[in-house]
Amino acid sequence: MAVETISPAEAAAPRKVRRESQLALMWRRFRQHQLAVVSLWLVIIFYLIAALAEFLAPTDPSAYSARFTYAPPQGLHLFLQNEDGGWSFQPHVNGYKSEVDPQAMRRTFVVDPEVVIPVRFFAPSEPYLLAGFIPMSVKLIGVEGPRDPFYILGADRLGRDLLSRLIRGTRISLSIGLAGVTLSLFFGIIIGGFAGFYGGWFDSAVMRVVEFIRSMPTIPLWLGLAAALPKDWTALQTYFAITIILSLIGWTELARVVRGRFLSLRTEDFVTAAQLDGASDWRIITRHMVPSFTSHIIAAATLAIPGMILAETALSFLGLGLQAPIVSWGTLLQEAQNIRTLATAPWLLAPGICVVVIILALNFFGDGLRDAADPHGR
After folding, report:
1. Which strands form 77-81's sheet, in the order they lie side by side?
2. Tens digits of residue pLDDT in 141-160
3. Distances (CA, A) of 264 to 169, 192, 273, 293, 360
4. What does pTM read for this prediction?
């Protein structure tokens, strides 16, 4: 058996050491969590839809048509059968034909496969501002005739396009969750960090406030604060008020976690070394102590976003959150809370499916991030 020998020159040569940053290590471990990777893509898709809502929505969410109230979904077809039996690429939807329900004595719509309405990608539209500042006059998808019905996911009780309203509501619901969690993280880390770092009367006062807020029932507290908003406020003022209300309630759990970690870390050697080196308390907290439990902060943040989304949805569904003309998943579900929706228009429950999908995706994504950031994980 041959033995490989190493020359003295090779032994003396410096070895190349592969160095990776903490983010690179986290990403490499995160990719091993397949469900978390799929959830990441879902979250990215949802937030892209929120950012490009005006471009992706086929029509104006507030445009209504009394001719097509509770019109069923048409469905988008990409291929059309020719007269000779072949198929050609021709995006289209089918029109409607009206029927009268003999039992309920009301008009209903059914999709008529004989009526073909051509659909265009990058269709021209009325001028609008993408994200509020980019002027555009084209939509991703639209019909050629301005009076032709185009309801891929159906219409509501006023004949408004559900798909356009669902896309526009994605921006409101997801931005409330993101903005609310950002404020909650700020309050939770700052207040909980100083309480755990300094202790004493400040720690006792903060913990009593946290215990008082957490002892109150969450939903009645939300309802009471939301009902206290002035009725004459604009939609934008109500939006910011709901975000602040959710943040003022959601910071308590993170503050308790941060405070407990600070109590255990303030006696560690690296904190003592930083103090002896003359580092300020703010630098010790932000540069040494907070990064040491990043995984806890990531887990708390990713689990808090679904809670914010559910809170906004619940408040709007109960009529105490966002109100028309603001379109959110909660306001869309509020319009669907009647017997006819469950019986004859189940497509109006599509916002509920979006809520379930994004909450599951955020939870699985948070689990993957937490495992990747945990320095004691496998």
Report:
1. 77-81, 87-101, 106-130, 134-143
2. 888 777 788 888 888 888 88
3. 43, 13, 16, 11, 32
4. 0.77
pLDDT of residue 204: 87
Class of residue 378 by CB neighbours under 10 A (exposed 0-12, middle 13-18, buried 19+): exposed
Q: Residue 273 carries which side chain, given as an amino acid letter?
A: A
Q: How far apart are CA 111 and CA 118, in angstroms?
A: 15
Tokens of 231: 């009725």
Helices (H), 90-199: 162-198
Handedness of CA 30, 34, 40, 45 (dihedral sign): positive
Whole-number Å distance between alpha carbons of 327 and 46:
16
d(CA 281, CA 194): 9
pLDDT in tens, 211-241: 888 787 777 777 777 777 777 777 667 777 7
Decide if 165 contacts 152 (C-beta within 8 A): no
Tell me the residue length of the chain: 378
**CA 173, chain centre distance (Å):** 7
Contacts of 361 (CB under 8 A, 6+ apart): 39, 42, 43, 46
Residue-wise DSSP of 64-111 = --GGGTTPPP---EEEEE-TTS-EEEEEEEEEEEEEEETTTTEEEEEE
Q: In terms of C-beta density within 10 A (0-12 exposed, 13-18 middle, 19 or more buried), how is residue 145 classed?
A: exposed
Kindly report the backbone phi and psi dihedral angles of residue 97, in degrees, each rounded to the nearest multiple of 5, phi listed first.
-130, 140
DSSP class of 348: G
* Look-up of token digits 């004949």: 159
CB count in 10 Å sphere of residue 140: 14
Backbone angles phi, psi at 126, to 5 degrees: -65, 145
- CB 90 within 8 Å of CB 79: yes
CB 48 within 8 A of CB 140: no
